[in-house]
Design a protein that fits this description.
The chain is 29% helix and 22% strand. It is an alpha+beta fold. It folds into two domains: 259 residues, Sandwich (Jelly Rolls), CATH 2.60.120.650; 40 residues. It has an eight-stranded antiparallel beta sheet with strand order 2-3-11-8-13-6-5-4. A five-stranded mixed beta sheet has the order 1-10-9-12-7. The longest helix has 25 residues.
Length: 323
């Protein structure tokens, strides 16, 4: 894969003639038909959500205030500047600051804040639903059964890094304010993230084995995105984001993006296959990675579903109520 940064504005035209002829709502994600969008690969995208009133800083400050008591505001340790750092976040603000104080100094270099599951607010639920309905025809052409869509807001003041990690969902990552570099790796590259590391994350939500080896950085593909630009990537695409200071000006020092993530019948089948693969691997076998053989995935998914239910029953039996 190439290592040069790709400017979305030059690689993805935004004229009405280049987008699919689907009726577009007032705020929408726009997919260039010429790129041949597919749900199982990385695709540059365009949108106009940066103009949405719910995604302006004053409204997001109110949202953060509402989400803070339920621990939906997350923070990473200030000063993380390397892609290989462990991705650990906490609901506690740095130095015990109030969420209001965090927003009052949101443009201080190194600040990093995420708002999780913003769809718990009814207004943002409507926004997420609108985005999903807009992109559903593109996704379901190859991955039917879009479900469980949620939204995240990420804010960072340069210089900052969101360390290397993977997600279990498919992801539309859209830049709302400022600039960001998104580095994406092929989700089928087992040299970058081994099969056992993906299994640990899907089955146990553990990122301990998901680490970027410096010598494999060249496997990544860089996208430099600004407001109105973004990138789609499937589960479990390894990725890292960075913000730099070259674009920062007085009153314009915050990089902010919206992630709309979701599952499909395919991601669900693959997750269940990972459950089965964990059992097979512990039995000394070397199972194929999900996605290589649809019929094997289907068989494994049936077994994995039973395994997952058994794990839940065992956990509920062993742990007393309230744990």
């Amino acid at each position: 894969m190439n290592t040069h940064a790709e400017s979305i504005s030059t690689t993805t035209p935004f004229g009405e003639g280049e987008v699919n002829s689907v009726s577009q709502p007032l705020f929408s994600v726009r997919i260039d038909a010429a790129t041949g969008f597919a749900a199982d690969r990385i695709n540059p995208i365009k949108h106009n959500l940066h103009q949405h009133p719910l995604l302006q800083l004053p409204r997001l400050a109110k949202l953060a205030h509402d989400l803070m008591p339920t621990k939906q505001c997350r923070f990473i340790r200030p000063g993380i500047t390397t892609q290989t750092s462990e991705f650990v976040h906490t609901p506690k603000t740095p130095n015990g600051r109030s969420i209001g104080d965090v927003f009052a100094h949101i443009d201080e270099p190194g600040t990093w804040l995420a708002l999780y599951n913003i769809q718990t607010d009814p207004e943002y639920r409507a926004l997420i639903d609108e985005v999903i309905e807009n992109v559903r025809p593109h996704i379901e052409a190859s991955q039917p059964g879009v479900r469980d869509a949620v939204g995240y807001i990420f804010m960072a003041a340069p210089p900052s890094v969101t360390p290397f990690h993977i997600d279990s969902e498919n992801n539309f990552l859209m830049q709302i304010h400022g600039n960001k570099r998104v580095t994406l790796f092929d989700h089928t590259d087992r040299e970058v993230v081994p099969a056992t590391a993906v299994e640990d994350f899907i089955v146990d939500r553990s990122l301990k084995k998901v680490r970027l080896k410096p010598e494999l950085r060249s496997h990544g593909r860089d996208f430099d995105v600004g407001p109105g630009e973004g990138v789609y990537f499937p589960s479990p695409t390894p990725h890292v984001t960075e913000t730099f200071t070259d674009w920062v000006r007085p009153g314009n020092g915050v990089s902010m993006s919206l992630a709309v993530v979701f599952y499909t019948s395919v991601t669900q089948r693959h997750a269940r296959a990972h459950q089965c693969n964990r059992v097979l691997r512990r039995a000394g076998l070397n199972p194929s990675f999900p996605g290589q053989s649809p019929w094997r995935d289907q068989v494994k998914a049936g077994v994995g579903s039973v395994v997952a239910k058994a794990r839940v029953r065992f956990r509920d039996y062993v742990l007393p109520p309230g744990h």
